Amino acid sequence: MYFGWVKGRAGIEGNELVDTLAKEAAVEDVPVVYDKIPREVIIAREKKNGFHIWKRQWTNTGKGAVTKAFFPSVRNRLRQKIPVFPEFTTMVTGHGTLSSYLHIFGLIGNPKCPCEEERTTTHLVFHCKMLRNQRNEIKDKKHLWQLAYDE
């Protein structure tokens, strides 16, 4: 194979056309022929945009106080690999089968825990005397006790 310089408009077929198109492209606005964005770039951009939207909503909402106590930072929540199951959702939202939540809707008469305190997520996770042993067992396994605040 041999590469060499060829003088423009030297009578070689196609050379004059290429030369003309190159000059036009240099001085005129030529429509972009290839304007596709790689899929990976779009995915990364949308993840970043979605994260910022989520973070702004999380910061600005007045709702979800119980959940925010467990996950004050969206970034840290995303880093945690937590399997979501009904009991977990009940605990981090304060909704579900907690007696304090059911009492709000008049579904049960007494919202108290057997230890006579109001049975809320905060009470069960941090204060219930009846669950002290389980709480201490979890605390001993530091990697499992990743809550936003201490007892």
Give structural notes.
The structure is a single chain. The chain is mainly alpha-helical. It has a domain at 64-144. It has 8 helices and no strands. It has helices spanning 15-27, 39-60, 65-70, 74-79, 86-93, 99-104, 121-127, 132-140. The longest helix has 22 residues, at 39-60. The chain is rod-shaped and about 100 Å long. It starts with 14 loop residues before the first helix and ends in an 11-residue tail after the last helix. 5% of the residues are buried. Residues 147-151 have low confidence and may be disordered.
Mean pLDDT: 78
Q: What profile does the largest beta sheet have? A: none
Number of helices: 8
Question: Which residue ranges are poorly predicted, with pLDDT under 50 across at least 5 consecutive positions?
Answer: 147-151
Give the ordered list of helices and strands: HHHHHHHH
Query: How helical, in percent, are the residues?
Result: 40-55%
The 3D shape can be described as: rod-shaped
The assigned structural class equals: mainly alpha
> In angstroms, what is the radius of gyration?
32 Å
Secondary structure elements and their pairing?
Layout: H1 15-27, H2 39-60, H3 65-70, H4 74-79, H5 86-93, H6 99-104, H7 121-127, H8 132-140
Entry summary:
The chain is 51% helix and 0% strand. It has 8 helices and no strands. The protein is rod-shaped, with a radius of gyration of 32 Å.
Question: Keywords, please?
Answer:
151 residues; mainly alpha; 8 helices; disordered C terminus
